[in-house]
Amino acid sequence: MAYVDFLMKLSNSTKRDYVARVVQHDKAKCAEVAIQYGKDYWDGERQYGYGGYKYDGRWKPVAEAMIKHYGLKPGASILDVGCGKGYLLYEFAQLLPGAKVAGLDISSYAIENAKEEIKPFLTRGSATSLPYPDKSFDFVYSLITFHNLYNYELRQALREVERVGRGAKHVAVESYRNEREKANLVYWQLTCRSFYTPAEWEWFMKDSGYTGDYSYIVFE
Fold first, then answer.
1. Helix, strand and coil percent figures for the chain, each rounded to 5
2. Which residues in the chain show pLDDT less than 50?
3. Is 120 helix (H, G, I), strand (E, B) or coil?
4. Helices (H) and strands (E) in the chain, counts
């Protein structure tokens, strides 16, 4: 298992007012709405989540970097666990002719409002029980999803990624490296259930039998 960063540059491009999220709205009420992963979370007001999650091409550089790093070839089979509206999968499908893509997300709203070209390949479901046979995919990834699971769910989800993958794997999560980043994470997050430092994440992944790579974003 190795640390390989694909996301920090993208994450840092977003400006956040951490304290405002706590003092300008009822944070607990906002979190109760967000955890439903419905329209408010994806396309509602900013205090409930993304504040409008539209396709803008931001995921193309991530797909290009992953393809290069993992040596993915045309026709590769790729699974996104926690795919949201499928924007990253769309980029893989465009960049790798003949790619066999699949995505899974707990949010019916996200799948119903996914990019039209990729919607037929998306399934509603849980990361703890992936509806795919063993060793089905050349590349399995999950970006900024697994921290939304409780620890007992997280272990099973990591084992599921390991089970369905026959090649490269990558899991990216939210984390913190110091007290400031921990405070910012607590202020900003709406759906997080597992709050771990990078060292704790790495221990948890190894202890769960996960052998792929990992990365994290932090809120500086």
1. 40, 15, 40
2. none
3. helix
4. 10, 6
Question: Is the Cβ–Cβ distance between 8 and 217 less than 8 Å?
Answer: yes
d(CA 87, CA 99) in angstroms, rounded, equals 15
- Output phi, psi for 187, to 5 deg: -65, -45
Classify burial at 181, counting beta carbons within 10 Å of its beta carbon; exposed 0-12, middle 13-18, buried 19 or more: middle
Closest CA to 176 of 219, 120, 133: 219
pTM for the full predicted model: 0.96
**What single DSSP character describes residue 144?**
S
Fold classification of 8-217 is Rossmann fold (3.40.50)
Structure tokens at 85: 């509206």
What is the pLDDT, as a whole number, of residue 55? 97
